[in-house]
Amino acid sequence: MFPSKIKKVKITSAFWKRYQQLIINKAIPFQWKMISDKEKPKVTSKTAAGGASEQSNALNNLKIAAGLKKGHHHGMIFQDTDVYKWLETVAYILGEYPDEKLKVLADKVVDLIGDAQDKDGYLSTRYQIDTPKLKFKQLQQSHELYSMGHYIEAGVAYYQNTGNQKALNIAIKMANCIDSNFGQTDGKLHGYDGHPEIELALSKLYECTKDKKYLYLANYFVNIRGENPHFFSDQNSYNDIKYDPFPEMRNTSENYFFDKKPIYEQKMAQGHAVRVLYYLIGAEHVANLTGNYELSRAVSHLWNDIVKKQMYITGNVGQTAVGEAFTCDYDLPNRTDYGETCASVAMAMLAKQMEFSHLSGQYGDVIEREIYNGALAGIALDGEHYFYANPLEVDENSKYNPSSSHLSMKRLSWFSCACCPSNITRLLASLSQYIYTYSSKNNYLLLDQLISNVAILNNDIEIRIKSGFPWKGNVEINVKVPANEKLNLKVRIPKWSKKTLVKIDGQLKKIHPENGILDFQIVHNVKINLNYDMSIEKIHANPLVMADQGKVAFKKGPIIFCAEQIDNSGNHTNYLVPKEINIEAKYEENLLHGVETLEIKNAVYQEEKDLYINQENRINRKLAKLKLIPYYAWANREPGSMNVWFNQSEEKYND
Ligand code: FUB
Ligand code: ZN
């Protein structure tokens, strides 16, 4: 479902069509088997982030709540959301690729969710089944509004893409239940959920129904957070809560819940990364819908903090496994990174939301970083294995150090906390919504992601994009304009393109992009050719990033590269790259479903015997080749070490 101006977008890019087919043919059926316990996960890990899963029970919990089965709730307190995000993924897919069999299955899931919902609209199977007396009484950890928020998102998406009214009605009933329980008025609960999500969900529900009640409620949840930094401890003691679903959360002192101050006073992104980001998505949406400039400014401040000081080169965010959290500016350790897939998905969602309010290329730059790197690494090329945490460097020894034992060298089938798999699939399934952004306020259409597609606008303008992305920088835009129609088309110039050539109907034009955006006023059929500079870039980090000092990373266009052990024998830390590199890119059709690889022909392999080395005991340095592959494609072959940042060699070596 696209905003008013856009009727339809069909992705034609071979790269992305493969992913869409993967989601249809592999990920959706596979995730269904997991959430309905038709199969046990084959690859799990007890130490890796997300935890091992034997059984999901997610669908079963709904059946128990619906009275169709007997038993106890099993799994995470928010296990319902695995079903909701699966449904949301299916919704986007059905919008583009109608499939009666899949729709029948998803309709049944909607019916089940409707049956599980209480008469008053409440739905959180864990509380309904096992602890009904505690409904809305332990908001610090209950995830009730988080879970319902995920349903509201799914219900809206399913309604918009398939027309299933019941899916929307369930969402409305749920939001009404929340509205009658929460708010300023006397007798209502003056509080909020430990995990933001409801804010963004209610904003979407408002946009779909146009019922202002949901916008007021979203606004309420955005603004109450941080008003009373003791809300959770007060509620826990007032309700005499003895049992904690997540005991470590009870007395967490730092800004884990992002509620120590109102957003207007928060100067640095701190706390659980996904919570912070979901909150910011909702806050930005509310700011945009209500015209709250102060709120929008507060969100932009935190956005800048994240993307300019706390984001890994891959787009991953959340530096520590302790609390799955942001740490502080310029602290970007590679070996202990967390970088949850959900956090990368949320970064793309936040960037998209920001783009509705502000015209700047920086948001599309982040979306691009996520969809080709940080977020995309969350799913295997086979669609049936997922990363929860996404390292920038890992090897056999990582598991021995408690601060990196959450990392894995292979993607897993499923997790006891299975939030990431369906989060990455719902992002990829909705990718066509990330290509254009229409501003109803200023009546322009921004071509944001330079992905081959065909788009039809409501006034029958047709836009055809043929692009070489992500491997080549050529983008051809053909616009067909019916008589008396016109279009203000803006096109993003990615920051990495140092020189962009533009031709309009074959004529070379001088361009003057502003904030990474080019402007075209189109009144008749036109062909625009852009040529972005996709030369290989050697990247250094700011000197304040201690972990990357003396190191370089490699990027070409939107793609960040890494080295894997399978391509480079020996130990990955023994490789050094010289300052003047001899590097070549080549497309390898039969590798990893077709990828571009880089080869550094004059790398150095340094082999030593002693623990510490000076000129006297230094033994062996030899010329070596170092092969790099796109980061998103790592861990799809034999497990082994991987690194994104490379040490540099001061010296040159010859054979
Ligand atoms: O708490 C719900 C989800 O589980 C979070 O968004 C993830 O970070 C994981 O902790
Ligand atoms: Zn996750």
UniProtKB/TrEMBL annotation:
SUPFAM superfamilies: Six-hairpin glycosidases. Residues 8-432 form the Non-reducing end beta-L-arabinofuranosidase-like GH127 catalytic domain. The keyword Glycoprotein does not apply. Gene3D superfamilies: 1.50.10.20. GO terms for biological process: carbohydrate metabolic process. Keywords: Hydrolase. InterPro entries: 6-hairpin_glycosidase_sf, Beta-AFase-like, Beta-AFase-like_GH127_C, Beta-AFase-like_GH127_cat, Beta-AFase-like_GH127_middle. Pfam families: Beta-AFase-like_GH127_cat, Glyco_hydro127C, Glyco_hydro127M. Residues 537-646 form the Non-reducing end beta-L-arabinofuranosidase-like GH127 C-terminal domain. It comes from the Bacteria. Residues 452-514 form the Non-reducing end beta-L-arabinofuranosidase-like GH127 middle domain. GO terms for molecular function: hydrolase activity. PANTHER family: DUF1680 DOMAIN PROTEIN (AFU_ORTHOLOGUE AFUA_1G08910). This is Glycoside hydrolase family 127 protein. It comes from Lactobacillus amylovorus.
